[in-house]
Amino acid sequence: MLHGHPYNRRMPASHAPARPIALLPDRLVSQIAAGEVVERPASVVRELLENAIDAGARRIALRIEDGGMRRIVVTDDGCGIAPDELALALARHATSKIATLEELEHVGTLGFRGEALASIASVAQVRITSRTAGASSASRIDSATGEIAPAPGAVGTSVEVLDLYSQTPARRKFLKSAATEAAHCVEAFRRVSLAHEAIEFELQVDERRAERLPAADWRTRALDALGDEYAGAHRVVQVQAGPLRLWGVLGLPTVNRARADRQFLYVNGRFVRDRMLGHALKQAYADMMHGDRHAAWVLFVEIDPSLVDVNVHPAKIEVRFRDPAALRSFVFHSVADALRAPAGAGAGVQRSVAGPAPTPQASNRSLAFYAPAGAHGSISATGGSIGSEADAAPGRWPQSGVPWPRGIFAAQPLAHESRFAAVQQAGDDVALADAGRSGAATAAGEEDAVDEPPLGHALAQLHGTWVLAQNRHGLVLVDMHAAHERVVYERLKAALARDAIPTQALLVPATFRADPLEVRVVEDEAEALRALGLELTVLSPTAIAVRAVPAALARGDVVALARSVLAELQEHGASRALEERRNALLATMACHAAVRANRRLSIDEMNALLRDMEATPGADQCNHGRPTWVQLSMAELDRWFLRGR
What is the set of domains in the chain, with CATH numbers? Predict the structure, then answer.
């Protein structure tokens, strides 16, 4: 202990001040509360916008000056405040939104604590001008004087906040530059406006109008928030189960970001940050995207207010759920399955290889989607309305075999086998040559069909790497290795979930030189290897033989496959590799089995690959998040060759 520094000295008990316990002055109490409620100008913006929404406004205008530090004005056309209630509006714990504990437990408004305006008024000058529908004129109150006087104004309310933190200058020193604070205010404006698409919003920063958001449908508002790059690269999810509903826009994994700056999650219209749900969403994207990249989404959760506690923090950005595990499971599986639509489910709307995305065109191909019984759900890619009433296996999530949570969100038993699950179980052998026969029959039988396959029919192979196909929208270009890798991966994953990876014995065992650690893994982890469909035996202290491999991987480099699996088990241990790193391990195995560049495929084999892609969940992306195919529309081809000019 450094006794020389005054902060390290303890005051003797005899010298302690004998100050009596006393109530703090109301103004000081408000200023202390303001430290939690009013962190920065953006906090004021959020509170005032939420008050305007609670007032039933259909149009809200926000104006900020000098980053909100000099002036913030929010004007709405809501119900207004009666003149005799204006003084109460600035009082602590005064609100019209709740009156009893029961109402607090079922609160359906954005605000309810009754302390925002009082906290703001304790650190700034506040003027409220308001008029109700039946009043002959507006009335104004000034927090500096407390006087109420008639004033000009339309029906609704205008709240003006001047010189923020002028009365607590020490706090103002912690604010950033005006430009930085303005950016935070704009972000707060976008977060609030995003969840209330039926309201028209307008934003003015200093002397310029920064944004105007007309009333629209929720999908249009969500895509505006995500940005132009997601207009042709997203899926829509809509699922309902009992008192729980989830809907929103999911950015495709192929369009990802270096930062998690376009992730918007709302619970009952309130923007929240929830670590549990955030992790569930990240896991839903996990096997379609590199770990250091971030997806974009706008998601809305609607839940019975009695099942969520919003009275956790004064800023109301944190919430607690009565049954968090059930909610996490619901969100994870709903989003994961929406992302795992088979390739071509939204054919004609994939981002093109050059220029802007083509105009989405409707797809008439539909696929079954599951949700709990009594619930309805759909998933769709842009331009294609894809979805139908729910189908799923009894009491289980069809993709993973995880039981449907029997908590407060539990629905009735599920009715039917999922089409996704049936597709996964139907094909355990993905060798292209074997699948070629069925692919040829499918191509021949549908050649003249009006509803042709989404990815069309193969035309040729380019440089031993790309498959060229023609569909009704134009030209399809497929990365054959990436596409086949995804197909193999999904089938391995489905087989491992059933504990039934089919194996194929090698006519002549493949042997390779091994180091002592590899030999030890084979001896100690024989059961784990068998679970993965591998049969390895130790021939000598320096040699290992591969006697059987998963049937889907028999045509690959079995020695390289065995070495990769042994390295994974050696580094992470069998139990952790099979539980926590299962998907990464299967992705490695699938990579070894996928067709390699410069392997010449027949037309039948290429068509078989296209049909497999259409039947495989998540086949729009490879296991690393790269696209497996792109669509070149007829309009794009015409533009390239100046046709029609």
Answer: 26-213 (3.30.565.10), 218-422 (3.30.230.10), 430-645 (3.30.1370.100)
